[in-house]
Amino acid sequence: MTQMNFSSSIPSTRGPHPVEIDKEMDLVQYLVTQVQQQVRIDALSVVNVYVACKSKPLLVLTGPTRSGKLSCLHTLMSLLTSNVPGRTKTLMGHPWWANGSGASVFLIDAQTRINTDIILNMIDEASQLENRKKAYMICMASISPGELTTFFANLAFQLNHGCVMALPTFHLTEPLVFPLNLSLVATLDTDWTNWTDNDLLSQTALVPWQSDLSRPKAPASNEIAPAISLPEQIFLQSRIRNVQIAFRKLHRLTHHFSGELAVLVGVMEELRKFRVPLSDRLLKDMIIYLSNAWSQSDLGLFDISHERNLIIALDFSFAQILLPATARAISNNSRLKETLLKTLERQFPQSFQYVGKL
Known about the structure:
The protein is an alpha/beta fold. The protein is globular. Strand 2, helix 4 and strand 3 (136-143) form a beta-alpha-beta unit. The termini are far apart. The protein has helices at 23-36, 43-55, 69-80, 104-127, 145-159, 198-203, 231-238, 243-254, 258-273, 280-291, 306-331, 334-344, 349-357, and strands at residues 58-63, 88-92, 136-143, 163-167, 170-177, 182-189, 204-208.
């Protein structure tokens, strides 16, 4: 097999000087290649979507319309479920096009009922004993901001207790355990990123998506796909959602890089100095995301260098977890904003850009 054309930021397990063969790295590299053939996007952004999906059961890509968000999620879903029919479903969000018409309420209610029925059926299917080692994924395309702050926030609140008692238009008589092998992903056509709902953020990865129109699409390839056996098992076994397990892995891999981790402590200390309230969940969520940035065999998914992988993962975790939760306080305090910009400027471009826009 000829070597695939991956970004230099993603370590290749092939080539004249291969690193240890790693099944999850093969999976991630193949995902990057497939997405870049459809969308003008950098490799790190694609890997970030995968890491975020490992970290939480709910994931929403936010960004401009027609920017490739849905193509990325469909590729991810197809790969992680081995493209087995019935393991993925794509639903439509509220019919925005009906706004202002007399039929809009009826159409929204009908679409909501259809979506609820399908979600309940997928929960039941994924929960079956014979299916618990198989990945199932539901995608809701073009949801509305209202669906994010109601449906997703309400579901996230219930997932904090491990069970589902209600979905839109339907209330259960007994708690329904949400299966660990089911992921619910969605796209939202907005540039807004300052979501602060604690229930929503507790179980939902909100990932900004910005395609790069100046970047050419990767050329189509006739190469045979790498033999990735049981990709859903690779995904399900490698992900970490327990903070104690995440901390132990992160400590083992990064205890030599005290300077990089000091930035995380320093940013949080600056926020506390300016009396910005910080929940324990924020640090836990960041630790879980950071631990998922390495494969099961401890290879960095963003970069083969542990140090560089940590810096990139920290950048994404700042921009997607810590900063959105504190955005209002930062935007209202020019001194705090200036301090954070100085801290983030050199090594954290995503976070620096986020704070600069506040």
